[in-house]
Each structure stands twice: as C-alpha cells, then as structure tokens.
Amino acid sequence: MIEFDQVNKTFTQRSATGRGKPLHALHDISLSIDEAEIFGVVGESGSGKSTLLRLINALEAPSSGVVRVNGVDLAALRPAEKRLQRRRIGMIFQQFNLLANKTVAANVALPLSLHRRRGMPGAKGHGAQETTGRGAAETSGRGAPRERALEMLDFVNMGAHAAKHPAQLSGGEKQRVAIARALVNEPDILLCDEPTSSLDSQHTDEVMATLLRVRREMDTSIVVVSHELEVIRGACDRAAILESGRLTGVVDIAAPEARERFNSYSERARRYLEGGQE
Ligand SMILES: Nc1ncnc2c1ncn2[C@@H]1O[C@H](COP(=O)(O)OP(=O)(O)OP(=O)(O)O)[C@@H](O)[C@H]1O
C-alpha cells in the first residue's frame, strides 16, 4: 500500500554566506507498508524519520526513487491531484495542534468544513496541516460535519467532552481528539509523528489502545514515528530502524529472532539517549 523504491532525499543547507551544501537526509530507502499494518519508524534525532513521513503525504518529494501510495507514484500527480491524495492521509503530532479557540467538536469537524468550503470532490481524507485553520469558519454545530465529528469523538471515547475547549483536556485526551480529527474523513493512512512523546505512561497506553482499535475497526494503515521503543514494541507489527538516513533494518516485532535484533538496536539507542553517545 505504501512503497518506497530506492528513495533518496537530499536537502540543500545554506551557510551564512548563502552557499549551498547538500545534506543527504535519506539514502536508498526501499520498504513497503501493508494495508492495516501498524508500522514503526525509530531512529535518533536527525536520522530522517520526519522526512520519511513527509514523503508519504507528499509534503516532500524524493530527490530520486519513487514513493507510491496505493500504487500511485506521488511525484507524477498534478498539484490538485496531490491535494486530493493528501486528504486520504490523516496525521497527528506530538503537540496535538488543536485550535484553542474552538470546541472539541468544532476541532474534529474542521477538516470536513474546510473540505466543503473548498468544494472538493470525494469524501475521503485530509491533511492535518490544513486544520491549522487560517480563515476557516467555526463550525456552527449544525448539519453533517458536527454529527460526523460526534461519531468520531464517541469512537475515541471523548463524546462527553465535545463542548469543552482543548485547554480543559489532559494531554492524552487532546491526542485522542486529534486522532478523531485525523480520522473524520476516513483516511486510508494515519501518520503519527511522536504521538505519545509528551504524555505520561497511562495516557500513552490510552492513545496506543486507540490506535490499535483504529487499525482493527477501520483497516487503516498506521505509521508511527517514535523514539519511545516501548511504544514501538507494544503497538507495531514491524519497525524500520533509521540510522543517519539509512535503513539498517526492518524488524518483525513479533518474531523472536527479529526481536533480538530490535533489542540490540534498543540497547544502543538507549545508551545513546542516556549517555549522549553510542
Ligand atoms: N527542509 C529542510 N531543509 C534542510 N535540511 C532539512 C530539512 N528538513 C530536514 N532536514 C535535515 O534532514 C535531516 C533529517 O531530518 P528529520 O527531521 O527527517 O530527522 P528526524 O529523525 O525526524 O529528527 P527528530 O527526531 O529530531 O525530529 C536532518 O539533518 C535535518 O536537519
């Protein structure tokens, strides 16, 4: 469903004098992520995790190689097609990105309202980036978007909080609202960028249980970028290990021999994170 075929991504880093230097963020990445799979991506800071996510929703284009989603080469899409494709992908972030001045229900309904206002064809998906909401009208609480938002809030067990504002919620509750918002357009894929990094362990468990339910009941493919190895171990079917932009392994979390490989990476990562060196 998501395929990376020999993907390279190089950025140009400009020095103070304006001279450009290439920075190879991803080298020769080939991997595929199945339908309804929960796929983890781990790696140290700067290893290319976010770049990999941004390639999946076409916010970045590969410098070479091909990224395909449902068989479609994203680089071959025209801008309008790319926007539609992006609407089939939901995204959640470490900092939730909810709008403080809107109710929980209005936050969740926002992608639907934006979709309607722009008169976009097709019912599926949205890019969470668009929910930052510049110029978007507050949903009035009437009509289909609100009903759909309430359904999604029930799905993440947040129905009772629909009339509250984000500031009245815990971090875990905010993330569950963000999940409801990301799913309101029934995306095929949910991208999660450090979804539990600012949560305590109880709220982490609640969010991960919600993601497991999303996969089970909606058949959504979920890609989870996280530096929290327990989260990857607890929720993912497989995980890619990125080291300095290179894919050094794709580990089947359930397989004993693969688990050993992941544990050995985890040990190195833990030593790095704790001691600042490998
Ligand atoms: N738009 C950009 N322009 C220039 N360099 C970039 C750009 N985006 C990312 N990079 C560089 O590419 C490399 C990979 O960045 P990326 O954000 O993908 O890493 P990451 O693993 O997600 O890091 P972190 O865990 O700190 O978020 C880094 O060296 C980063 O500085």
From TrEMBL:
<protein>
    <submittedName>
        <fullName>D-methionine transport system ATP-binding protein</fullName>
    </submittedName>
</protein>
<dbReference type="GO" id="GO:0005524">
    <property type="term" value="F:ATP binding"/>
</dbReference>
<dbReference type="Pfam" id="PF00005">
    <property type="entry name" value="ABC_tran"/>
</dbReference>
<keyword id="KW-0067">ATP-binding</keyword>
<dbReference type="InterPro" id="IPR017871">
    <property type="entry name" value="ABC_transporter-like_CS"/>
</dbReference>
<keyword id="KW-0547">Nucleotide-binding</keyword>
<dbReference type="InterPro" id="IPR003439">
    <property type="entry name" value="ABC_transporter-like_ATP-bd"/>
</dbReference>
<feature type="domain" description="ABC transporter">
    <location>
        <begin position="2"/>
        <end position="269"/>
    </location>
</feature>
<dbReference type="InterPro" id="IPR003593">
    <property type="entry name" value="AAA+_ATPase"/>
</dbReference>
<dbReference type="InterPro" id="IPR027417">
    <property type="entry name" value="P-loop_NTPase"/>
</dbReference>
<dbReference type="InterPro" id="IPR015854">
    <property type="entry name" value="ABC_transpr_LolD-like"/>
</dbReference>
<feature type="region of interest" description="Disordered">
    <location>
        <begin position="117"/>
        <end position="144"/>
    </location>
</feature>
